[in-house]
Amino acid sequence: MVPLRQREVSSRRRHLLRSGALAVQGAVREVGYFYTTLSLGTPARTFSVIIDTGSTITYIPCKGCAHCGKHTDEWFDPDASTTANKLGCSDPLCNCGSPSCSCNNNRCYYSRTYAERSSSEGWLIEDAFGFPDDQPPVRMVFGCENGETGEIYRQMADGIMGMGNNHNAFQSQLVQRGVIEDVFSLCFGYPKDGILLLGDMPMPEGSQTVYTPLLNNLHMHYYNVKMDGITVNGQQLPLDQAMFDRGYGVVLDSGTTFTYLPSDAFNVMAKAVGDYAEAKGLKRTPGADPQYNDICWKGAPDEFQGLEQFFPPAEFVFGEGARLQLPPLRYLFLSKPSEYCLGFFDNGNSGTLIGGVSVRDMVVT
């Protein structure tokens, strides 16, 4: 467990605050992302949204969208919701963070573009969010999409649940409204699914906790941590710590499926894992998808439980000496029967993204 945020609160205030659990669905290989279901509007409708700690706005496609893809559910119709409030340009809730909101037809308008060149834009509205476990609904601000491109257009999930490190993010709105304490927990299960916990909830007794602090104000909106190095099979890799400070630094990003390392770190780690696996008798093989230059090996069992015989243990070494264990489950993915590929990729000098594959089967708080 890697706590991202830790805050003390009085026992009386804790008693007054709510907490709730949202079921998480999805998988690294079969789906390519993890998502949950939100209940929005009155009467309530449900929408599937990718849980993304790298985004700060929650949005779903709305009726009349000029360029939105075909997703799981019908587009949201704010005119059919008796509790919807379309935000004007001067409304105090018209706040998008960075980049800032604009004014479109006298309504508050947001726009977001991502590194993989997908984008979302639309109007901000306020409406009811059905809090989990039959608790009273809460008014929330979210995006009513008028346009999508790239992966956002093509994905099956309806939208994005922005859980980034910003006051506009979904969980931050709940905190500002006094609904939950300033904490959330996320678990991506193996082989699939998981749970999202909103608010302060006790962890099981005997949990092994690995703690590393967030770096404040390093890069806006991100959950940044300090990384000192990587080990493979108990050996520290010969890496300059400064490489992990490049670009946007080291970011915990639930919306990214795989983990992306600076080129030098990726090359050294890939070689260390490959040398170990091939010494155990596995054969290097091209990946199943020719459009990607996946690094794969064949000859291992289909089940992750037996992979320790063929692939080495690894660790991320964070600031203050914290070590996050990376068994093969957290750096490989099953490409096809008996064939595993490295779930880490070369990110040039852009920075380090710790994606969903590396936090499977643990609770991140």
UniProtKB/TrEMBL annotation:
One of its GO terms (molecular function) is aspartic-type endopeptidase activity. One of its GO terms (biological process) is proteolysis. The active site is at D52, D253. Keywords: Aspartyl protease, Glycoprotein, Hydrolase, Membrane, Protease, Signal, Transmembrane, Transmembrane helix. PANTHER family: ASPARTYL PROTEASES, PEPTIDASE A1 DOMAIN-CONTAINING PROTEIN. Gene3D superfamilies: Acid Proteases. The keyword Signal applies. SUPFAM superfamilies: Acid proteases. The keyword Glycoprotein applies. Belongs to the peptidase A1 family. It is found in: Endomembrane system. One of its GO terms (cellular component) is endomembrane system. Residues 34-365 form the Peptidase A1 domain. It is a single-pass type I membrane protein. Its main location: membrane. This is Aspartic proteinase-like protein 2.
